[in-house]
Design a protein that fits this description.
The chain is an alpha/beta fold. It folds into 2 domains: 47 residues, no CATH class; 261 residues, Rossmann fold, CATH 3.40.50. It has 12 helices and 16 strands. The strands form 4 sheets. A 9-stranded mixed β-sheet has the order 6-7-16-15-8-11-13-12-14. Helix 1 runs parallel beside helix 3, helix 9 crosses helix 10 and helix 10 packs parallel to helix 11. It is globular and about 65 Å long. 37% of the residues are buried. Bound molecules: S-adenosylmethionine (SAM). S-adenosylmethionine (SAM) binds next to strand 16.
């Protein structure tokens, strides 16, 4: 049987960049299409698997971080790490956070960015903002820091997502209607866009020129990868979270469904716009590891508390009941996990 460099990467879920670096330094012969001799294959397997069981910690006072079983120097220390090292939360700007992650270190990205463009459009009349937008946040004017969604910034964000994502993996990005029109086309230059899904919130919300009941989810891939199930519809009927504790808190089911489609046990799930931590709860429920980031103090304290409680007691303190609507296809997917 012929083994390849990709087999080592897949088998141990290690970082491609590091395997290639080791091959270069040790002048290991690599044949056509990345093929390896049996001896070189075993050598690489032994070397990288020996690192899998090590824990995160410090070495010569410098933090290191265990990612995909491979020890990397941490450019940034997580603000929270679960006792089993599977859940790590960072407080940073999304682009900085991604830049500090090694290439090809993440298995699936599920995220719901803060679009400042949409918030500009939420302004009514003399610049007043509807809902509770003006009640909270810094300077009494904002719910939370906005990501500056200029085309250039958004492109850099997507390029970083592409870099950190492994090959043959999926990404899900949430969009409102305005940002879908303005920013989603940029994703087509970077990822292979496979579909645009609709999250149907079942009941109408605020809005003029038709009241809002949905959001979009762009689904794309880096390389080729099938979905885990052929039975997932492209409209997801999931209700809003009632009296949510964090503005824009999404029901965990939205993220769970992304992972039902695209994750395997122990996959590294990444969300650079963490908010209340709904994606982290979805990752735990799906037996995945998780890397989350948000710029705001409130997000970090809410999601830290939420994750800690969930790991301790399996209770989600910020969403106490299922948001699944009465929809047979949806219910079946959640009952079966992966219904082929
Ligand atoms: C739409 S909310 C995410 C909500 C989340 N999906 C949930 O279910 O709670 C967007 C988040 O992005 C964060 N954010 C804004 N600008 C950011 C930036 N530059 N980098 C990282 N996070 C940012 C906000 O603090 C906010 O929590």
């Amino acid at each position: 049987m012929i083994h390849t460099v990709q087999d080592v990467i897949d088998e141990l879920s290690v970082v491609e960049e590091d395997v290639e670096k080791y091959i270069r330094l040790n002048k290991i012969k690599v044949g056509k299409n990345g093929s390896l001799s049996e001896k070189s294959y075993q050598m690489l397997l032994d070397l990288f698997s020996s690192q899998v069981s090590k824990q995160n910690g410090y070495e010569n006072d410098k933090p290191f971080y265990l990612l995909n079983g491979h020890k990397i120097e941490a450019k940034q220390k997580p603000v929270f790490e679960s006792a089993n090292n599977r859940i790590s939360l960072f407080q940073d700007d999304a682009i900085n956070f991604l830049k500090n992650l090694p290439a090809a270190s993440v298995d699936v990205i599920i995220t719901d960015p803060a679009y400042s463009g949409m918030n500009q459009r939420l302004k009514l009349g003399r610049g007043k903002i509807i809902g509770k937008y003006s009640d909270a946040g810094k300077n009494g004017a904002k719910w939370f820091e906005e990501f500056h969604d200029t085309e250039d910034n958004y492109k850099t964000f997507l390029q970083e997502c592409y870099r950190v994502l492994k090959n043959n993996r999926h990404i899900y990005i949430m969009f409102d209607s305005f940002s879908l029109l303005s920013l989603a086309p940029i994703a087509r230059d970077i990822f292979e866009v496979k579909n645009v899904l609709c999250w149907d919130k079942v009941n109408i919300g605020l809005g003029h020129y038709f009241r809002r009941r949905h959001e979009f989810i762009l689904f794309a891939s880096k390389g080729k990868r099938h979905l885990n199930s052929k039975n997932i519809p492209d409209v997801w009927k999931i209700k809003r979270v009632n009296s949510s504790q964090y503005p824009t808190q999404k029901p965990t089911e939205v993220f769970e469904l992304m992972l039902i489609g695209s994750a395997e046990k122990d996959f590294v799930v990444c969300d650079p716009f963490l908010g209340s931590g709904s994606s982290a709860i979805a990752a735990i429920k799906s037996d995945c590891r998780f890397l989350g980031c948000d710029i705001s103090d409130k997000s970090i304290s809410v999601s830290k508390e939420r994750v800690q409680q969930f790991l301790k007691s399996k209770t989600d303190i910020y969403q106490n009941s299922s948001a699944l609507a009465d929809d047979e296809a949806m219910t079946k997917l959640f009952l079966n996990g992966k219904s082929k």
